[in-house]
Amino acid sequence: MLIEINIDGMIGPTHHYGGLGVGNLASHAHRLQASNPRQAAMEGLAKAKLVSELGIPQFLWLPPQRPNLELLQSFGFRGSVHEQIKEAFLTAPGVLSAVFSGAFMWAANSATVTPAVDSQDNRYHFTPANLVSSLHRSHEASERKSSMENTFSSVDFHHHHDPLPYCVLLRDEGAANHMRLSDPTGELGFNVFVYGEDDSPQAGTHSEQNHEDRRTFSKFLPRQTKLASETIARHHRLNPDSTFFLKQHPAAIDAGVFHNDVIATSHENVLLHHEFAFIDADEELNRLEKTFESRTGKPLIRVMVPNSTVSIEESVQSYLFNSQLLTPQLSGTNLQWTHSSSPRMIFLCPTQCQQTASVKRFLDAFLASSDNPVDEVKYVSVAQSMAGGGGPACLRLRVPADQRTLDQLPPFGRLTNQLYDALLQVVEKHYPAHLTLETFCEVDFLNHLNRIELELERAYFGVSSDQTKD
Ligand code: SUG
């Protein structure tokens, strides 16, 4: 029996709006507006707590160090750190924003993860996303590789891959463009990769003419290439018969769907997607449905939301598809497997879904229909994250795990009431409540960030302040 454990990226004290998200309309709309890191982190913690209260193992990763001074220095600024920051502020504010980026909080972009049962070599595979589409995210790859190694190196039979080579041909954004469907026990996995671009002439698969015909993007650069997804599937030794590749609809990308998880979601035997999530996908979706049914003995529950019910624009505005489908587990010190033959799910949606009339109507009708797998819709406010283009599902990375794997994970980082209280205390006491790029230039700000980092580590690793009093 495998269930999806959740790892959220704890929201850091430099959360701000740089407007740097490629093709991300919320990020563009909030560019250079003041952010509230304190509220952001409180919302993130509350969301994670809600998931853990459903008995689902919920972990947190601490924020990586910001500013990334190595990155700042690589741009050739001179003088003291403070002078470099000021020069970047005046001459290259986008670089300054990248150096202080809090985008690591969107843990769905950390990696592609597949469990041992899916691989021909019976190993867990982890590939950190290279995130090469944007400077402010590309430095997360090595940081998240360390986070994953710290959390999973004690697990039997694992392989931590390097991020794919940092080049435009291999743009990879991790689990935001990967879905794992399974039977309700989680043992039979079906990996679905979603890519935005497959027309690279350097990939060597198409003639020049074909390349011209297939050039499908106009406004925004698609963030995932087919070659990247295929390469990950090869590295992970996934069985080709149960691995699927779907192309994102270019019109959706242009409407602000910069990741597949803004227009489709999955959990166990459920695939929920918008009518315009994919293009030229009928054959591959048929293969998925047939393979799923023949291997599990039960049909895949595929719910397609028509554009006439919820438009792409409303999907992007509400982040309906960035909600979390969750199967509650009985809580306790050990996992109690509560799956029955027809497990009931909770749909954790951002409050924007409640406020968007068409989406609310869809959700009410969905709940009322007899054949849906969802028992309850819960609404959660992650407003500060949403303003950067990240809903509830963006904030977490899912790792399918059995009891043995769970028992092998290190003790720190699992969200308990105690950890929640300790982290919340740091956030309430030390996180800024108002932040703009100017804040980064304040003389005392770096010291303040160092202090917060120390306090978070104390809370996370359970070191009491008495032991570490300075
Ligand atoms: O990569 N936003 C992120 C949002 C990522 C959402 N994740 C998933 N869909 N899984 C991005 O565009 C905003 C940063 C800024 O505004 O400067 C940002 O990076």
Structural notes for this entry:
With 470 residues, the protein is an alpha/beta fold. The protein has one domain (3-66, 101-460): 5-stranded Propeller (L-arginine/glycine Amidinotransferase, Chain A). The protein is built from 19 helices and 16 strands. The strands form five sheets. It has a four-stranded mixed β-sheet with strand order 6-7-8-11, with helices on both faces. Helix 2 (37-52) runs antiparallel to helix 17, helix 4 (81-91) crosses helix 5 and helix 17 (417-430) runs antiparallel to helix 18. The longest helix has 16 residues, at 37-52. It is globular, with a radius of gyration of 21 Å. Residues 206-213, 331-341 and 464-470 have low confidence and may be disordered. N~2~-(3-carboxypropanoyl)-L-arginine is lined by residues 17-21, 24, 27, 97, 103, 106, 108-109, 137, 176, 258-259, 261-262, 388-390, 394.
Q: Layout of SSEs?
A:
Blueprint: E1 3-9, H1 25-29, H2 37-52, E2 58-61, H3 69-73, H4 81-91, H5 93-99, E3 111-114, E4 124-128, H6 135-138, H7 140-152, E5 158-160, E6 178-182, E7 189-195, H8 208-214, H9 226-235, E8 243-248, H10 250-254, E9 264-267, E10 270-274, E11 278-279, H11 282-296, E12 301-305, H12 312-318, E13 324-326, E14 345-350, H13 351-355, H14 357-368, E15 374-380, H15 383-386, E16 396-401, H16 403-408, H17 417-430, H18 445-460, H19 465-468
Bound molecules: N~2~-(3-carboxypropanoyl)-L-arginine (SUG).
Residues 17-21, 24, 27, 97, 103, 106, 108-109, 137, 176, 258-259, 261-262, 388-390, 394 line the site of N~2~-(3-carboxypropanoyl)-L-arginine.
